[in-house]
Model the fold of this input.
Amino acid sequence: MKNQYKKYIFLFIIFDIVLISAVLVYFLDVPAYYLLISALLIFGLGRLVGYPLRDFYKGFSAMRNQKWGKAQNHFYRFLRELEEQPWRRNLMYYNFGNFTSEVDAMAHNNLGLTYLETNPLEKAEVHLKKAIGIDDQYSKAHYNLAVVYQLQKRLEESKVHFEKAVELGMDNVNYDQFVSNVQQVYGR
Done:
């Protein structure tokens, strides 16, 4: 079922490109082959850049499907690849990173989340601290570490990291709402 939707999304994107190209050719008198070359470069470069980061994306996908062990395997493999080939870090600048541009910090944060979900909180803490060590301005890692500390009943540390996360741009909820949300979601 999911593959069927992917096909339609791809067709929708192609339709948009053709429509935009036709408008540009008709109204702006842009040569059609310029548009074709531009479209091929944009799609081709996106796929090329994504390939060396495939384990990161596979781990992210496994997380969305709540396959925590599979996600951990992909993120660990990705971090090993970064160790062996540090140039891969630079490719994230061409993709996404709303809260950080450091792909290894994102991988450690995601590993921390997988451990948060499977309950070895000590391992979650280790990876979230590594994420913050790589990028101390990474608000998601501070927020997730605040969750871990809350679950471990380390309330002062939880509050410090929660406040840091809010200061760095996470949703501006108050600390009491945060505590209530953690208790509701994790029920621990």
